[in-house]
């Protein structure tokens, strides 16, 4: 009898965490390494949010709470959805979890049976397929190439739906590409979903507030209200408010689904950290001027990175609408040999050689389901980004 679960054999460790850990190890060993793998803002959590957490401690708000969130935070989430997305929810339609990842995982565990299919556009966040596999479902990957700006088309979605399809996971702006869907682009997808009433929609709106230029964020249930009853809208405070370590995610949807998610959470982690919940309450109800300030900095960094990477030989880097990632294509580098003697056969080899020869750590595209690409997180300082991009330019110039 094997000791480890057969289910565990279906999944792999997170490549983004692996790259981040590798960069840390090299730095600790004294290597000159620039890590562009981590998906978290480099800014500190706003002071008013930290102060709210301190007050919660001082006021003794350190006991168990309701399994899926304190009433005050749930109401704040309802108010946020109405204010920012035009979506009306009541507190019994809201769940709060230990980070957005737990919320997504709870949804899948609560709903998937063997043979159920989940449509996932690629490039995708690395955890989507593996969470589906852990929950007993089958990921259906649909590649969205650079020619469609890394976005799923209505025709692709229609072709991917089968009688076994249970969920469609939708992420905009996207990790890893930063691609954001316009209202019209999303309406084309929701029109398809209206024709298939057995398919539910799970949105990952974690990068909602990180959009640039004239781009306007929208979410499926907002675009097509007729999908409201089979959509669960997921979000969190991690990216927008620089609260990755606080671990608070949330979602709103039909009450019967929220109850099922609560049952899963009651037998796993139980409630999220009480102090983090009060910090999240302050994030959603307190001053929001931090959002505009961080958005301005991220847009400047995006423009810097896109410009410098497009100057590198063999690289094509589209300009994303949001998030803090770019997803450059390296088709022009494949088949060449690096200055250090490595034959570049794919994006994983490219990323490995780049790290070994220049000290720049990026995540290879195959980890996100679409090659030949790599992901750069520009959630770091302008000076570091300039240095990193200059090293990438030098690496590409040395390919022959």
UniProtKB/TrEMBL annotation:
<dbReference type="Pfam" id="PF00155">
    <property type="entry name" value="Aminotran_1_2"/>
</dbReference>
<keyword id="KW-0808">Transferase</keyword>
<dbReference type="InterPro" id="IPR015424">
    <property type="entry name" value="PyrdxlP-dep_Trfase"/>
</dbReference>
<dbReference type="InterPro" id="IPR004838">
    <property type="entry name" value="NHTrfase_class1_PyrdxlP-BS"/>
</dbReference>
<dbReference type="InterPro" id="IPR004839">
    <property type="entry name" value="Aminotransferase_I/II_large"/>
</dbReference>
<feature type="domain" description="Aminotransferase class I/classII large">
    <location>
        <begin position="31"/>
        <end position="392"/>
    </location>
</feature>
<keyword id="KW-0032">Aminotransferase</keyword>
<dbReference type="InterPro" id="IPR015422">
    <property type="entry name" value="PyrdxlP-dep_Trfase_small"/>
</dbReference>
<comment type="similarity">
    <text>Belongs to the class-I pyridoxal-phosphate-dependent aminotransferase family.</text>
</comment>
<protein>
    <recommendedName>
        <fullName>Aminotransferase</fullName>
        <ecNumber>2.6.1.-</ecNumber>
    </recommendedName>
</protein>
<dbReference type="GO" id="GO:0008483">
    <property type="term" value="F:transaminase activity"/>
</dbReference>
<dbReference type="InterPro" id="IPR050596">
    <property type="entry name" value="AspAT/PAT-like"/>
</dbReference>
<keyword id="KW-0663">Pyridoxal phosphate</keyword>
<dbReference type="InterPro" id="IPR015421">
    <property type="entry name" value="PyrdxlP-dep_Trfase_major"/>
</dbReference>
